[in-house]
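Our collaborator T.R. sent over the components below with a one-line note: 'Predict the complex.' Nothing else. No constraints on interfaces, no templates requested, no preferences about which chain binds where. So this is a plain run: every listed entity goes in together, and whatever single assembly comes back becomes the starting point for the next discussion.
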Amino acid sequence: MRSGEMLRCCGVAVLISGVQCLADNQPTANSFDVVALVDSLDFAKDYDIETATGTVQTLEHVLLTHANDIWWRDKGGGRMRYPSECEMWQFSEAPFDKKRLPSEDIYGYLRLESHRGNEFPVVREECRKRGLDFGIHTTVEENHWYSPLSSNWTLAHPEYWGCTREGDPWMGACSIMYPEVIEHKLKMVDERLALKPQKVMLDFWRNGAWSYAREYSAPALEEWKRLYGDEPVPEATDPRWQKMVGAHFDDYLRRFSAKCRAAGVEFIGGFVGIDDKDDASLRNRYRGFSWRHLAKEGVFDAVYVMSVTYDPADPFGSTERIYRNVMANCGKAKVYFPLASYNFEKCGIREYAKLTKLSEAEVTKRLMRMARDVGARGVVLECVDYGNYRPDICAAIAESLK
Amino acid sequence: MDKSLLLKCVAGMGLVSLSVAFVGCAQSPCGERAVVKGFNPVFSPDGKKVAFQRMEDDVFKLGVTGVNCGNVNWIEEGPGNAAYPEWTPSGGLVYMAGHDTETAYEAWRNGSKNGYGLRLWENGEKRNLTSGRCRDFTPSVSADGKKVYFVTTRGITSESTVYSKAASTRIAELELSAPGEPRILMDSPNGNNSGFVQPAISPDGTTLVWGHLENFFDKWRIFGTRIGKFDRLEWCPVSPCGLSALSPRWHPNGKFICFSGFRKGDPGWGVWVEEIATGKVKRLATGENPCFSPDGKTLAYDRDGTVYVRPFGPADLPDEIMPEVRDDAEPEKVLWTAENVTKETSFNTNGTQFAFGNDRTIFTRVKVKLDGSKELRQLLIGDYKEHEYAFQTFASYAVWFSTRDTAGRYLDVKLDCYNGAREYTFTAIRTPGKILLSVDGSLPIVSVPRAKVISLGSIRRFVVGRGLKPGESVVKAEVGTGWPNDVPKFKRREDLFK
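Returned assembly:
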């Protein structure tokens, strides 16, 4: 059976057998989730991740952190890690699409998008056997700032590329203002759901250089004219422009959410740089929509705060204020907070340790306790690579879970 | 090519005998006629056949069929993949082929030699022209049949992160009659987010054109140079700057090229033709990967996974000149200078001459003595009301020139040229669409920013020498407009084809 047929069948099965899927997909009732974000690509030199053995080895290494919930990356940029028919996976291997440059390092030779390299059946089954929740970590980006990871579909459809205000199109990302682009993205949601995860986390941080400044596509200009007549199209910093574009992300996210709900899958939004202010100032990073409003509305079943903009003079105090503010503004959505080994956005364990002079193990315990105290569903390890969560940190996680 | 449609077509063809997998031969009003399911077509030397590739059963196959429809003679149909066919004058085919059975990890551990090399099919026999753990692809055979030009990743050994500055691709040549080690002619200029694809040698053998990606935020563009002049200084853009363009092929008269192109507003990738002497262009059809027939009277290309042919006649001759942005025309004019600064010094200033907007070319030039250490030194800062770091040149383990976009976000260009204690001259250029950095008069590194650069209106001060250590100094700092005299200009199409 061809991959596409298989995926379609799986998609139909998801829709028809909703009850059964709900039963299969019920997340484990952990008292507190410790989620591992796993990008298997980062293990490419440690294990043979194109094989089932290597995938199990990767998972086992990840579980040294005591994670009880696994969110596995489904793509790097626009290059998929399963045989995606929507993304024409056969063209992902360099150099079969001339518009995508090859990469000569080991990552450039991986064929995780092929049937042979597809990790997801293995990961799902291993998680089931071990009583772990299995989720998919996907991203809004179409390129990961790197030509070899460009989306095949995006490269094939220049007519949907986003443009600058000066009218310059760019092959890195399509404009959300085209209905065809949203339909394509929703087809990819179907593909993800056919992989039978219990959760899907859509990561807005890995945005592949998207910005409002590249949304001046033809339908955007038409909509602006409809809304504002002959008023010149504004700069991308104009709140009206951002609101107009953001409404299309709202549409996409609501439909994404509805598909997840129909399949009994939790839909989670991941956001960085959260502070305790209103999120209007963050529109530029989050594609215009108000994640708090969408959480309250129930579009997101859960929100993953990927980093917070805390006060370095009072790291824990200000972090807790932000956490409580988030909890108070997310409606019924569950919330995850970060426990990051890397220092992305200066929000890693290391940075807190540096500011507070505490050990990293102690910081780990404090952050986990804080997340638990404010009522979060859990913490997320962003991201688990080979050995990046040291044994003392892993031990602190285990102790905190007791 | 709409690959999703291609995949559907291919899926639908699974039930059909491959040898009769033709499409109808009905003509459209413009004379367009479908030939065969496939893509990347090329005419045979006698013009009666086309070689093409097809993706079927998850394998890229390579076949030959008659231009007027006929059976497909499969040259390669697996195992492994084959792509990018190119005819030799004697009726052979050069193409990319390979069958990599290892995982990436196995290959990496084992030091594998499996990759995609060039293969020659001639008189029913096949032999590998190149091999190795690399990709040799998009060959172009010279009209005399002696040489093959192609894109390769050979010799690129980067094992670092995706942010590596190693080149992504190179252009190489190989003697077809006596293949040995390919000779590398050109490296992609800007690290692994820049690169080449599909070189094409002119019929007279004097000129090479290719698809060129300068930078992650740039668009594909056709570049060219004369054979033998492979230094970056000699390359020049051939296709207009307003087009995305790649996959060039020559008209047999050497006066035209055709290529895959896209301009904002087009319904998709298109078949474009350019008269290279004048730069005039024309879009002829929706499709990709065009090539001319040997008599120059027919074009073949692909669309939605089908190969089409159509006549190329007088009505198809290019007639549009697309505007070119020229950012190096204005001569250097120094507006501000500071000399012999040994510690951080602020030069409060004002004046409308520093209100540069974002629609003209400006430059900064900093002549410095540095001790080779890696601490941050902000050598020259332009502090404006619009942004306190409106532009700056700074050094630590490398050297950067940075500016901001209209939303105040950081943009930069980096040069890995800082290699010890000595005197350097860093000259940075900010044009409306690019930022560039040169050291000691070198050809500059070019960065195409992700957004429009910030408009500079109200100067507050220039800051020179922040972070300088004892013994270091800014010998001279300058700010001005126009293209600086010490930085070479890139060549233009007119220089190549005058």
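Summary for T.R.: Confidence is low (pLDDT under 50) at residues 1-23 of chain A.
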